[in-house]
């Protein structure tokens, strides 16, 4: 793998966090607040479903997979619409607003049906905001800072992903495991996130268009995305089959003896590692081949899955969770940068939407498979299958390596 990262014909230089546009910082804090809100709920939701409402592991896998797939389907339309309109901010704000206004349903829900509905609507909000937000980051960021910018936003987002579970742990202890109390308090940062994007983020100046703009999901536009983009989608799809929901990490820790009130520590540990490593990994990917970084992330996932499959002690379960955090840091922001690398500038929203749609389908399959395998053969079978899919994606990445060329626009 010898390809250097895209530089728009600029000389290679070490990226600096001081060069990251203000809009990227603000969008990072928007993501952080929404993640605090969401993770206060989601860190407890799998245990709540199983221990309070009596759901099976297969039901948990189906709910988690369908929720993420719902978000991904919506991302295709919202990403294409942002390209067609030439506007991205208010679509992203609408998504954050929908998620914020859905949060009160979680403490009010009295059945699995209500929780499923709330989870779906919340993920629709995620779907609406995801592609326009990522395309907006790519729009305002010079190509030599793409990895840095996406890594920074991912780090800020992930800070929320471990602050939320920490708050959940403290509030569960203070309220004698009162799930509804924690769910109500999670409403607050959700609305703060919506206010920040609505009143602080500014839409960048739109470039002049020479004529009518074609609908981005037309056959002609799809073909313009090019072979490198679609080869990357193939690799990312197989990889995401290994990336089932973190709900199974929580349930694995609970099975190994973690008290119910402390199960959110799983997400705390994973996301602290993720947050600390995502920005350095993103910045490094601006100086070296991104595909080498992706292979490192795959290796972390394989080892982490093997540890989680064969280890029963809590310290070893903790090691597996740390390795999962490292794999997230070396892959998630990096893959967003690679989408921006391979897609035309005027189709970035569409590209991010299609990318997230395909990843959502893979996540649905991964979570359903993981839940079914757990019911059949326990956690060992679930995590060994994850390791197998990760190895398969690494083999595919090496096979198509020469076809993943980048664009310079």
Low-confidence stretches: 1-11
Mean pLDDT: 83
Outline: globular
Secondary structure tally, helices: 18
Assembly type:
single chain
Provide the number of structural domains. Answer: 1
| Largest β-sheet summary | none
* Beta-strand content: under 5%
Radius of gyration, taken over Cα atoms and rounded to an integer in Å: 20 Å
> What's the total count of β strands?
0
State the end-to-end CA separation: 22 Å
- What's the SSE pattern? HHHHHHHHHHHHHHHHHH
- DSSP helix fraction: over 70%
In terms of structural class, how would the helical and strand content be classed? Answer: mainly alpha
CATH architecture: Up-down Bundle
Say what the CATH topology is: Growth Hormone, Chain: A
State the fourth-level CATH superfamily.
MFS general substrate transporter like domains
Class, according to the CATH hierarchy?
Answer: Mainly Alpha
State the main characteristics.
409 residues; mainly alpha; Growth Hormone, Chain: A; 18 helices; 74% helix; 0% strand
What does this protein look like?
Helix 3 packs parallel to helix 6, helix 4 runs antiparallel to helix 6 and helix 6 runs antiparallel to helix 17. The chain is built from 18 helices and no strands. It has a single domain, classed as Growth Hormone, Chain: A (Up-down Bundle), CATH 1.20.1250.20. The longest helix has 30 residues. By secondary structure, the chain is mainly α. 74% of the residues lie in helices and 0% in strands.
